[in-house]
Amino acid sequence: MNKVKILIADDDKNIQFAFQRAFESKGYSVFTANNGIEVIRLTEKENPSLIFMDISMPKMNGLAALEILKQKGSDIPVVIITGIGTMKTAVSAIQLGAYEYITKPLDIDKIYVVTQRALEMVSLREEIIGLRAKLAEPSSDYEIIGNHESMQEVYKKIGAVSTTPNFTNILITGESGTGKELVARAIHANSPDKDIPFIAINCAVMPENLIESELFGHEKGAFTGAIDNKDGKFEAAGNGVIFLDEIGDMSLDMQKKLLRVLQEREFYRVGSNSLIPVKARFITATNKNLENQIKKEKFRQDLFYRLNVMHISIPPLRERGEDILLLFHHFVHKYSMRFKKEIRAISPDLINILNQHNYPGNVRELENIVERVILMCMGDVLTQSLLPENLKHSVLSFDTPQFIWAENILPLHLNDARKIFNDKFEEQYIKELLNASEGNVVKAAKMADVDKRTIQRLIKKYDISKNLFKSMDL
After folding, report:
1. Could you write out the DSSP letters of every residue in 197-252?
2. How is the chain split among helix, strand and coil, in percent rounded to 5?
3. Using CA atoms, how far apart are residues 435 and 469, in angstroms rounded to an integer?
4. pTM of the full predicted structure?
5. Do the bridges between strand 381-382 and strand 345-346 make them parallel or antiparallel, or are there none, so unpaired?
6. What are the pLDDT digits (tens) for 241-288?
7. CA-CA distance, 313 to 453, in Å (whole number)?
C-alpha cells in the first residue's frame, strides 16, 4: 500500500522539521518546499494528497502558488499557514480555494485533526470517482452518468447505503425517467453480497387482485385458480433485495399489509396460517410526492416513515444541464456500437436543440432520442435533421408568444413580470451567443459588445455549460 504524501511549504526550516517529524511518526511520506515555485514543481512531480503552505515565502508567495494550482485544475486540499496578523490574507486564501488555514504558533493536535479531516475528504472523493466510473460502465446493467453536484450526492449515498444492514429500508424519489431502478440496482451491485437475488415489482402495473398473491405467495385452493402452492416474491428474495417501484400507486389496503411485513419482518402466504420470516432488504421508489399523498389520505403516514429510513432523491435532467452533453455522448457511443455505425462528428445545431429541450421524460427520453438519431443516421455526422419533428420545434424563439407568457405572468405585478421576461431573455440570448460562437466566451463577448466578465457572470447565473455549444468531433 502506497504511503500518503504530504507537502510542507515554508521557508522556515524549523517549521519544516516540526511537520516532518510529526507526520513521519504517523507513517506519512513528507516532502518540503521553500517557496511557491517549488510547490508547483513538487505538486506536479509527486502528486501529494495534502499540502500545508505558508503565505509568506520568497520568490513566489503562498497565495500566488495556490492560485496557479487552482488554475491548473488541482483538487489537492491546501491548508494555509498564517500568522495572527495576517488573518485577512487567510480569508482571501479560503476564497481562492484553500481547504483550511491554521495560525502560528502551530498546535500539533489541531494539525492532526485538520490532516485527518482533509485525508478523509480525499478518500471519499476518490471513492465517489471510482463508484461513478463503475456506474457509468456501458457493459453494466446500471449505467448512471453525471458530473453535476446533485449527482455527486447520489453517488455518495449509493456508496453509503450499499454497506448498511439488510433491515435498513431505502426510499428513492424522482420523476419518471430519472433512473430510480438503476440506482436501486447500483445499491445492490455495490453491496458485499451482490450475488444475492434482486427482485423488482412495479406496483403501478400489477393488478390489484394479483399483487397480494404475487408478493406473499399462496396455498393451493386459497382462491379460484390457485391450483398449486406458490412462493411469493418476499419468499423468493431470500436474503436479497425486494424493489417495489412506484410504491405511491399501491392501494391503501396493500399498504396496510406491507406495513405489517416491515414491522414484524414476517408474513403469511394467502390461505396459510404459517408465518414465514422476511430476510430481504426493501428498496422502494416513487415519482410521487408521498408527503402530499399523505395529506390527500392516499398514502399511509406510518408506512412512509418505515420506508423513508434512507432517502435518495434523483434530480430531473433539466436541473443538471451540464450533464446533457455527457449523457448524449455516452448514449451515442452505446448505440453506435450496438448498431455498428461509425459517428465522427455532431453538429452544433443539434447540440443547441438538445441543450434547450426541457426533457419531461428525463434521461430515458434523451436515451430514446439518441437511439432514434443513430438509427436514422445514414452517414457519419449527427445533425438536427435527424431529430423528431416535435423536438425540432420545441425550442422557443424570442418572437414566440409562448416564450413571453410561458410562466403565466398576467397575475403578477408589472415589475415581477418584467423580471421574469428579462431573465428569460438574458438566458436565451446568452445561449444563442454561445451557440453562434461555438462556446468561445471571448468571441461571444465581442459579438455582444460587452466585456468577457459579463458573459462569464451570466453563464454562471443561468448555470450554462459553454462546452455544450462546442462542435464535437468524435
Report:
1. -EEEEETTTS-HHHHHHHHHEE-TTSSTT--S-EE-HHHHHTTSEEEEETGGGS-H
2. 50, 15, 35
3. 5
4. 0.59
5. parallel
6. 999 999 999 999 999 999 999 999 988 888 778 888 888 899 999 999
7. 34
